[in-house]
Amino acid sequence: MLFTKDDVVGIKVNPVGAGIISTRLEVVDAVIAWLASNGLPRQNIVIWDRFDLMLKEAGFTPERFPDVKIEGLQTMCEDLPEGENADHSRWRDKDGNHVSAPNFDREVYYWADVEGPKDLPYLNQHVFNGKHSYFGKLLTQRLTKIINVPAFKSTGNGISMATKNLGYGAICNTNRLHAPLFFDVCTEVLAFPPIRDKLVLNVTDGLRGQYEGGPMPAAQFTYDCKSLFFSTDPFALDSVCHGLMVQKRKDMGIKVNENPRYTEYLRYAERLGLGVVDPAKVQVRHV
């Protein structure tokens, strides 16, 4: 139903919060074993995220996943000293451009009328500035199918799960988008063909959850959720998981702001025909 043996399948993980709330290695093991047992060569599988360093820190390495490709859309130097002593040559080429710039497709971009900062620390993390956020060539030119495997965690009164894992993981130059367009990005980026036409399965890793302090790791707010969530529709999935997260936050005594703005991006997606979020139309099966 979802794959052929000739597909090149990208498994999008969330490595943020390694060992605390990142996508569990064992869940990815199971996804790969399922694909391989149905005839997809391991060499046709790519575990990916935006940052190569984060993948390594979370345990997604060639040694851990033999014969499977591990790819970050970009590199970033995290240990640069501040001020004039910073050695920016490690992430810039001889022309002063980010060494990861060739990894992004200049023909496929998310445009927003928000200017990106021009300081070097920003460029180190975001590759480009300006008003264009380019998609990785991995998505536009190489992958034929995508499996989205996010973690189960909050971000303020919202969530950082299926749609955010791709909305902010598939493009560069994103920090400029957080304040004015935080949740809209989670809908609009997923409308582009490199995701819309290739995303066939979402598996939210809820074996462990984090109900406060997200999207960064906060061990004191993690708990054993002991659930995996499967859907072909990332918006339906996030709609269901948002409701579960709100209830968990209330159960833990957290004051929850249930303003509709925290779920409007999901209804926006439904209006665009990208998914279904109306509870009356979403069928939830418990196994």
Q: Would you give an account of this structure?
A:
- The chain has 287 residues and is α/β, with parallel strands linked by helices.
- It has one domain (9-81, 137-271).
- 28% of the residues lie in helices and 25% in strands.
- It contains nine helices and ten strands.
- Strand 7 (151-155) and strand 8 (158-159) form a beta hairpin.
- Helix 6 (178-188) runs parallel beside helix 9 (264-271).
- The chain starts with 8 loop residues before the first strand and ends in a 16-residue tail after the last helix.
What global shape is seen?
globular
Low-confidence stretches: none
% residues in beta strands: 25-35%
Largest sheet: 8 strands, mixed
Salient structural properties:
287 residues, 9 helices, alpha/beta, eight-stranded mixed beta sheet, two-stranded antiparallel ribbon
Could you give the topology of this structure?
Elements: E1 9-13, H1 25-37, E2 45-51, H2 52-57, E3 69-74, E4 104-116, H3 120-126, E5 130-136, H4 137-142, E6 145-149, E7 151-155, E8 158-159, H5 162-167, H6 178-188, H7 193-196, E9 199-210, E10 222-231, H8 234-251, H9 264-271
Parallel strand pairs: 1-2, 1-6, 2-3, 6-9, 7-9
Antiparallel strand pairs: 4-5, 7-8, 9-10
Quick rundown:
This protein has nine helices and ten strands. It has 287 residues and is an alpha/beta fold.
